[in-house]
Amino acid sequence: MKKQLSFIFSLLMLAVSQAHAVLTIEITQGVEGAAPIAIVPFAWAGNGAPPEYMNKIIAADLQRSGFFKALPEEDMIATPSEAGKVNLADWRALKVDYVVVGKTIPQMDGSFQIQFQLLDVYKGKQLAGYSIRSRKPSLRITAHQISDIIYKTITGVRGAFDTHIAYITLTKNRKGKKLYRLAIADSDGFDEQIVYESTQPLLSPAWAPDGKRLAYVSFFGGRPRIYIQNILTRQTIKISDFKGINGAPAWSPDGRRMALTLSKDGNSEIYVVDLKTKKFTRVTHHYAIDTEAVWTPDGNALIFTSDRGGSPQLYRVELNRQSMPTGRPRRLTFEGNYNARASISPDGRRVAMVHREQGKFHIAVLELKTGRFQVLTKSRLDESPSFSPNGTMIIYATEDNYRGILAEVSVDGRAHQRLSLQTGDVREPAWSPFK
Amino acid sequence: MALHVHAKYDLTKKVEIMGKGFKYLLIAIFVVSLAGCKFSPVKKRVSDEDAAALAAEQQKQKEGETGAQDQRYGAEMGDSFVGRELEDPNGPLAKRVFYFGLDSSSLSADDREVIAAHAKYLSAHPKVTVVLEGHTDERGSREYNIALGERRARAVEQLLLVQGVSPSQVQLISFGEERPVALDHNEAAWRLNRRVEFLYSGY
Lengths: 435, 203
Known about the structure:
The complex is a heterodimer of chains A (435) and B (203). Chain A is 12% helix and 44% strand. With 435 residues, chain A is mainly beta. Chain A folds into 2 domains: 135 residues, TolB, N-terminal domain (Rossmann fold), CATH 3.40.50.10070; 268 residues, TolB, C-terminal domain (Neuraminidase, 6 Propeller). Chain A is globular and about 70 Å long. In chain B, helix 3 crosses helix 4. The longest helix of chain B is centred in the N-terminal third of the chain and has 38 residues.
C-alpha cells in the first residue's frame, strides 16, 4: 500500500514537473573578439553519470554574456581535471585564452565537493581555484556561482549568472481558458517555478531589492490591484486597491517605498506609497498620461513615461525624503515620437526603454551623461526591458512567429540571445537583484 | 509552493462549478415552474370508453339539474410589452463598440452622435448602469496601454456626463492590450482592438 502510494505520488510529481514548461536558450548573435575559453568536462569520481554536467552550464553562462566564446567539447584534445595535468601547449594550439578544469567528488553524506581551477593559458598561471560543497538540487546554482567567479576574475565585473528572472506566461488550459502565470527561473531560464496563476490578466512584476518578494498587478476580481507576494512563504498583501488604475509598481532602492500609477484622482498619475505607513503621496499633476515610474539608484528621483509633450517620452522628477517632487519634471528623451517603459542601469548611468522607429518597437539605451542614444534590437515588437543587476545585459520581451518570447541583448548591442518557452506566450521579464 | 498554487486554482474551479451548478438549479426551477403552469392543465389522457362514460354522466347531471348550461374559457392575450430600446438591432443603441486611431482617444462625429443616443437612454433610465471598457492594440508598453485604454474610456464617459448621465451610472475599466478581440498581429487586427466597449448591466 505504502509502495503504491509513493508510486502514485511520483506519477503526480512527474505530471507536475511536465506541466511546467522549460525555457531554452538560443544564441542568435555572438560577439567578435569574445575571449576564447575552454571549460573542460568535470571529472566525476562516482558511479554512473554525473549528477550534473557542470561544464555545460558554465560554458552556456559565459557564452551568453557575449564576452566569451566557449570551445566545443569535441574540439578538446585532452580533458584534464586539475591544473597540474594541464598541458598549456595543447590549449595554445587551440587558440584558447583560458582553461577551466574541475571535478565533482561524491561525499559520504550524499553531498558533492566541486573543485575547479581557472588558468590563463598564455601567462601560464592559475587565476582562481575553489572547492565548493553542494547538494543535488543546488548543483546548477553552484555552476552559476562558478561562472560568476570566472566572469569576475577575467572581466573585473561582478557576474549575474546566479540570479533569477521573473516573467509572465500566458497559456490556455484544457478547456481553452486563458491562464496567466507569474513564474521565476534561474537567469538561464532553467528551473522554472510558478508563484502565482490566475485566469485574469496579470502584469508588471517588480522585484523587491531584497530579491525575496515580487510586486505585481492582478486583474483577479475584475479590476486591477497591486499585490506584494513573498516568494518563499507565498504570503501576499494587497498594496493598492483604488478606483481606476492601480499599476506599474516600482520599489525604491531601500525597499521602503513604492512608486505606482493610480487614476483615482481623474487620470493616470504617479504616486509614491510608504510601505510602512501606507501613506500615498502624489508626485505628478498633469492631465496627460503619467505612468511607468522607476527609481534612480540613489532613490532621489523617478524616471517615468508621460505624453504631456504630445507623444510618450521619458521624464525625470526629483523627490525629497517625503516623496514630494522638488521641481518640475524634466524631459529626457527626444529621439522619435515614442520612448516609454524605462529601466535604469544599476549604476544609474543608462536608461533602457521601448523606442518606436518607423512603426516598429525596439529596445534603445540612452547614456544620461553624454546623451548618446543607441537602438539595440531589430525586431518589431520589443518591449519591457530590464537590466541585469551587474548592468551588462538587458532582458526584454519580443515576438517570434507571433509568439511572445524573451530575449537578451548586451548593453553594447553586440551579443543577442533568445529564451523561448515551449508553449504559450512569455512576456514582461524582470531581472532579480543580486542574491 | 506549487501545491498552494494548485490548491488555489482548484478553489476557483470549485467556485466556477458552483456557479454552474447554481445556473443549472435556476434552469431546473424554471423548467419545473413551466411544467407547473403550462402542462398541468392538460387533462389526463383518457380512453375512449372512459370518455364516453364521462360525457354520459355529465349529460345526465345537466339534465337532472336545471337543464341550463354555461362554460368558462380562458383566452390567450399575449405577454405585456417588454421590448427595450437597447434590444433594437437597428437602433443607435445597438452600436456598443467604438474604435480609435493609433495613440488617439478622439471619437468621430458619427460615434459622438451614437454616444449621444446612449447618453439620452441612460439619463432616461437612471437605474441602468454601464461599464466602459477601454482597450488598446498590442504595440508599445503594457502599462502605458492601460493608461491609454482608460483615457479612451474616459473620453466616452465625458460625452455621457455632459449630456446628463449621472456619474454613478458609469464605471470605467481599462484592460490596455490584455484583452484583444482580434488575435492577428497586423493593422486590421490592431484597428479592431483599439476600442471602448459599452457593457450594460444585465446584458
